[in-house]
Amino acid sequence: MRWTLFAVPWLLLGCWGQTEEPPGEPVGTFNAVGFMVEQSCGAAIPAPDPLDLDFELRSESNGRAYWRKLGGAMFAGVEKDGEFTFQVSQSWMVVQPDRFRGYVGCSVTQRDVFTFVVEPVEPGFEADAGVEDGGLEDGGVEDGGVDDAGVDEESGADAGVEPTLLTLTGSQTTEITPLTGSDCTPAVAALGGPFLSLPCRVEYVLSGEGIAINVE
Length: 216
Prior knowledge:
- The protein is an alpha+beta fold.
- The chain has helices spanning 125-140, 145-161, and strands at 15-16, 25-39, 51-59, 64-69, 74-80, 83-95, 106-120, 165-178, 200-212.
- It has 2 domains: 15-120 and 164-212, no CATH class; 125-159, no CATH class.
């Protein structure tokens, strides 16, 4: 029998041509780490743990969103209120049919879902404390008030171009289910197949951080 092994989740999604102009406006660049919380598929799904991802997000005002692994292809999805979802379903033949043996073969549907929420990082206490310290220093040098104001203007300009920090939390799941009419018994590990069980599921919990890309 000829087995078909599956690629790492979400690399099978339909992608935007790399030679074309990327659609949408940039949201930010991110680094996320995924920790596996379920793996019932076995060797059929090469799934590293932990999973390390560096990627870029883009979006349009109509709710379309785009995800691209740095240096890779771009995938289309949707965005609503800061929640991004990318999903696809594809069917694959795992075991070829054998007419001579009367075996119908094994085909499965693979459904990948990549969903996460992006939120801006709120200013922390340390930043507020820094402002208070600055106030004490200004009080000690009254004559420098004009100069300080000038510095404030410059820092204000600098602050205008400082990157906005973002957080990301979500999950990535892959579910594989035999198609109706398939006989996937030979595909299970107990009979020498690549799947630990069928149907099966791989799930990661994701967390990460990013930097917003501000477009003038």
